[in-house]
Each structure stands twice: as C-alpha cells, then as structure tokens.
Amino acid sequence: MEDPPNHSSPPLLQVLQALKEASHNLQANPSQHTDDANSAAIKALFELHSESDTILSGDPNLSYLSQLLTDLKDLVESHRNTKRGLGLGSFLRRRTSAHSISRIAGSIESEIQKWIDRESVGDLSRALREPMRDEEELVNLLVQLEERVSLGFSREFQDLVLRLKVFPSLESILCDPKCSKRIREHSALAIAGLIRFNKDVFVGQVLMGPTISALTSMASPNSIQVLCSLIRSIKSPIVDEIESNGEIPKIISFLNSQDLLMKVVAMDCVLEIGYFGRKEAIEAMLKEGLIEKLIELQRSELGGDLIDIDKHSEKEEENEEERGVSVGGVVEKGKRESRQRRFLQNHPFASCVARFAVQLEVGEGLRQRERRAFKQEILSRVREASISDAESATIVAEVLWGSSP
C-alpha cells in the first residue's frame, strides 16, 4: 500500500492550524463570535475563505474543506443579517442559525485534523523506515503521534495507523539496538499511547510481539515506566507474559541499581505486578528474594515507616491546637494522606514491604486463599530477614494492619 501523497508545506500547515483554532473557537461559542464584528475567529475564517482557492486547491483532499468554508461564510453573513427581535420566532431563528454555524465549524475542524493526520502519519511511516536519517525529525514525529492519540479515539486515525503498519514499525525500532536510546524510548511511549488509544486493537500485538523483552532489555527508567504503563492498561494478561518470558528476575534486579530513579521505577513496577499478578508471578518475585530486597530498601535513608509520620507531625498538630485550629474527621484524613504523599516524595521506599503486601491484598490477580497464603509467607520472610526484633515488629505490624499511601 502506498503512502498518502506528501503535499505538506510549512505555510499550508500554518494556515490550516490557524483555521482549525478559529473553527474550534467558533464552534464553542458561535453567537458571541458572529455578533462581534471584531471577532478574531471570524476574521481569520473570512480571510482564509478569500484565499482558499489558491491555498487549498493544490490538494484534492482539501476540496471538501473549501466547500465547508463557503457554506460557513454564507451562514455567518445570514446570521448577522437576521434582525434581532424580542419575539419567540426571532429567538428560535437565531438559535437555529447559531447551531448550524457551530456544526459546520466542527466539520471544518474535523476535516483539518484528518488532513493533518494523513500528513503526519505518512511522514512518520516513511521516517520509521530510515530511523538513522534524521533523529530530530523522527523524535518530533513520534511526539506528534503521542499527542494525537492522547486526544481520544478516532476510527479514521486508527485505520490510517493500521493501513500504514505503524505499530510493527514502532516495535521494529524499539528492538533495534542500532537506533539511539532516545528514539527507542519515544517509540515505546508511542506504543503505550496506542494501547491507551484502543487496547482491543493493539494489545494483541504487544502480547505476541517483542515489546516486553525489549523494554526490560533497555533497562532504562523510561523503558520501565512504559512497562508500568502497559501493565496498568493491559493488567493481568501482560503480567502473565512477563512471568512466562522470564522477565521478573530482571525487574527485581533493577532494585539493586546504582541509579536512584531506576530503583524507584522498579519499585513502581513491582507494585503494579503485585496488584495485577496471578499466583505464578507473585511466586516468581518472592523466589527472587523480593521481600529481602524491600526490607533493605526500607532500612535505607530513603526508606522509613509511614507509621512514623504521626510522630513527625505531633508538633505541628500541637501548634494548631495552641492556635485554636479545629479540624473535622474528613479534613484530618486529608491532612494525613497529604503528609504521607510528602513523606513518600522524600522517602520513596518507606514501608515498601507493607505497600507490596497491600497490593496483593486489594489487587485483581489473586484468589482469597492465595492472598492469605502469601501474607503468611511475607510475614515469615520478614521475621527471617530483619536484623532486630524492633525492625521485625514494625514491619510485621504494618503488613498486618495494611500501611498504604
């Protein structure tokens, strides 16, 4: 299948972007703009209409847009010529006219977005075949794809992506060690964006393809963050693949990284797997000594115990009482949660054993009897790995009572 023709030129794209913005503003509030003689949106639309023959005639895909501009101009002029009156008939005529203007403005915005989509996806499809040619251009196109899919679902855009085989090309770039790390990471972000765009269509390609192994092999904070995003989107099925592909030992090993950010995102990944993972995945993590590693992290300067937050805030609360500040139960709960969030920002591994246990308790992957069995195993491992009775007692108490942010 051939790529769409590339008629793009900066002036045309700038014109269409300006027209899209003007149409969006007019669609949102047609009456205000049409009644205002100095409306920027109307001025832009009228100026573009007068130049549309030369600007739009070069691309057959824009012929319908030209006709819409003509229809809109006629409607706006008719609306302005409609006499204002106090009667119901005058009110209804102007409301109907404003509705028609809004509808056509929406159609103009949609047509422009379709044109931009055809051009940008076509450019991306070509660039993905030659990733070494211009890294900056390819990164910009990948960012455009991420931004486009974040706008929400579009059948036409999805068909375009499928027809030009963008997803397999992204996977190919992600798995190519000759490509720069930056390009590979942006390709991974684009893949995650497409999953959020329409999980039903693209999830099968992730589960059957090399994406999971490529992300763990890259071993960068960004690649593991993308893996976390995929786990949140695809849930238990992708955790099953992670476990069956033997990727869990790699993920657990990232907790030993010298890079703090890598440790933090690995912790996030462990928590996501704990929430969505089935029995086999949890067993694989425990077999790799996860609880022992989490105890070490909790013992570090960036660890600590969330139950200590109350101790840290006692002086603050005493000061509030002295000032006569009274708070209700809901406010107090909000304050406590806020303190926990602030504490975790500076101590990302605080109460990490209990936080993992909570994920198993409230997650989607385990049966009730499996939750109970894993909780007992976690408690047993805590008692064995703790260096003091006090440390063991604190962590056991958190696990039993469920300390979570």
Automatic annotation (TrEMBL):
Residues 312-331 are annotated as: Disordered. Gene3D superfamilies: Leucine-rich Repeat Variant. This is Uncharacterized protein. The lineage of its organism: Eukaryota, Viridiplantae, Streptophyta, Embryophyta, Tracheophyta. It comes from the Eukaryota. InterPro entries: ARM-like (IPR011989), ARM-type_fold (IPR016024).
